[in-house]
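One thing: mind reviewing this one?
=====
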Amino acid sequence: MTARWEDLATRARGLAAHLLGRVDLDALARAPGLDALAEALRGRGLLPAEGPVTPETLELAVRRMAGARLQLLAAWGRGRNALCAVVFEDEDRRSLRALLRGAVRGAPAEERLAGLIPTPGLPERALAELAALRTPGAIATLLTAWGSAYGPALLPDAAATRPDLLTLEYRLNSVFAIRALRGARAARSRGLIEFVRETVDVENACTAIVLAGTGPDTPLARAFVEGGRRLSLEAFSDAVAAPDASAAARRLSVAFGSDPLAPVFAQAAADPAAIEAAILSRRIAAQNAAARHDPAGVASVLHYVLRLRAEVLDLRRVIWGVMLRAPRPAIAAALVSA
């Protein structure tokens, strides 16, 4: 099963050339204050020429720029609808997960939007409207009204008096797995299918780390999402049965075997909270290697989108690090981008 993406891959590599590298991020992290940081971001084309300078406005500008870049990729990707649909749906899934988590916690709307990238399916206005809703039930209801496939799947559990976040994330990830695998197969791309399967494995692994040592009430079959490649229900259950998150990460490292993500879980045993950033960094490196091997393949697009996601997260860390006058080494140590 093969598909060629020469045109879109070439354009994705061109867009990737404008992303910030580690040297650029380190330089931004040395800014003496927000005004200096804003000026440096304007110099790199990441901020409008004028406007108020606060952490919130800087972060919003970064997210808008990332959204505009995805819109450009979507415009170039016409005729490649299956590929773009999978890529954007993965971003939408992450956004909906963050919005549901924020609603369950009762977090402020601005906090719920942190790090989220607008897409053609969930543009900035839609994300802001969802972030303003008070409950998961309201989010599911609005998604249903918009015709989103996630709305009906979430609604029965989201409408409960005290929605269970684990169940909501299971519903969200299950719908994503079904739709994304279908889209990847329609795209006739083995690389895209493997990307979706790896995404499912990652979500299952992170769920296992969260559940480890808690004795969850929810049956594990309703926490484990089918569709992955490396992590079986048996291995997932074994990780959940670990006494704590560190032990679960070690078991996951064994379960992933020769997969490039296995060392990430071994390292995460010492710091489970850092697992998501470490996974993103390793996935970027893997797609970069695949793109070098086959520049005209889907990996060039996936590499760009993952790097864009990392840039948004890193710039958020830089913005708030400068605002709080955090030591530059501390900011640099938290960055995902290589």
About this structure: The chain has a mean pLDDT of 91. Residues 1-77+307-325 form one domain. The chain has three domains: 1-77+307-325, 81-186, 190-296.
